[in-house]
Amino acid sequence: GHPLSMEPAMNPMMLYRLVGMALAVLAVCHPVASLDNGRGQTPTNPLQCGIASAVFASNTETAVTAVKTGKLSFWWNWNIAPLIDTSNLDATVAASLNNTFVPMVWGTGVEPTYDFLADRSGYVMGYNEPDQYGPACCNCDGKQSYYPATSAGWAPLFNPQSASIAWQTTVKQLVSAKTSSSLVRNIVSPAMAGDALPVTGVDCSLDPAVGANSHFCKGWLSMFKKFTMEMTCIDFAGKSTNCWDVIDVIQIHAYAKSAKEVKQKIASYYAEFSDDFEGTNGRTKKSLWLSEVAMGSSNGTAISEFVTDLLNPTDGLTNRGEGSAGGFGYVSRVSWFSEFFFPSFAMSGDTPRPYETWSSSLFNPFGGLSDVGETFFSFC
After folding, report:
1. Per-chain mean pLDDT for the chain
2. Three-state secondary structure along the chain?
3. Among the listed ranges 2-11, 167-176, 310-319, which one has the minimum average pLDDT value?
């Protein structure tokens, strides 16, 4: 996804097929032991670090490296299954990958299996970026065209009102499929690409596939909250509640040229959903996941500086103070969007050059940590 963009980007699920081009990315391997630089966290509510990537499936050495940092709290891949062949991996590494994987329910269809409810992570993610329009396919028009990595596809999810009806059904499907072996107990909201506040004059009930209707529904989650508050859902504990407070975590995505923009976006979500993050006004207390984040760049030094600015303990996410005081204690998890390369798109007021590509990989092509990866995990 690409929350600060007005242009379509490639579906992340397609990116892993192109890893062969990763050798073009200049990344330097550093030993995992070098991670201990004194910047690790010590608060009682430490920020948990993860990875959003499809690369583990095609480059298992990256997965091994991630686990061996000892700092991988979770990871996800826009799917309900890990999709990794772990048969040749060390049993401890394989178990860790399975235990930290978080499944995502991409769209509204009935899943082929609900075995993922046994996942030890305890969480299941909702739809991916329904606030952006993009057919959920690659090369779907017979041309080399890619669209936003969203599960909005067509109007039913793009429209927050109809999405609330779909959400009620999705929650019912999940809870109904629960068995005695199910370990998933927490529901993560649909992932937001756009801003927290609606844009005046944009009607998100209009089908984005038609004419000049908007392809972006900023403030989607705020509207979705209003509709789901009026609907009844049963949570995993068997308790009847509204279909908003069945959610335990609010998740957002952010891509930008500067970490300052990302922190401002997070703060705007805190302001809009403060009753949820504080557990006031009758709302269940929720936390926020920054489940996709990356810089629009291929400069490793600049990206490492971006990571430091984003995660530092002074004004970054490892400042675990109260949100009302400018801290980020309500942000419980961050997962870096790690791909060897991905297409550029307009962001932060900049238009990329033709054929410009970016890199966000925490790893080098042979599996070791890149400079960016070393910097990221040093804050975890």
Report:
1. 87
2. CCCCECCCCCCHHHHHHHHHHHHHCCCCCECHHHHCCCCCCCCCCCCEEEEECCHHHCCHHHHHHHHHCCCCCEEECCCCCCCCCCCCCCHHHHHHHHHHECCECCCCCCCCCCHHHHCCCCEEECCECCCECCCCCCCCCCCCCCCCCCCCCCHHHHCHHHHHHHHHHHHHHHHHCCCCCCCCCEEECCEECCCCCCCCCCCCCCCCCCCCCCCECCCHHHHHHHHHCCCEEECCCCCEEECCCCCCEEEEEEEECCHHHHHHHHHHHHHHCHHHHHCCCCCCCCEEEEEEEEECCCCHHHHHHHHHHHHCCCCCCCCCCCHHHCCCCCEEEEEEECCCCEECCCECCECCCCCCEECCCCECCCCCECHHHHHHHHCC
3. 2-11
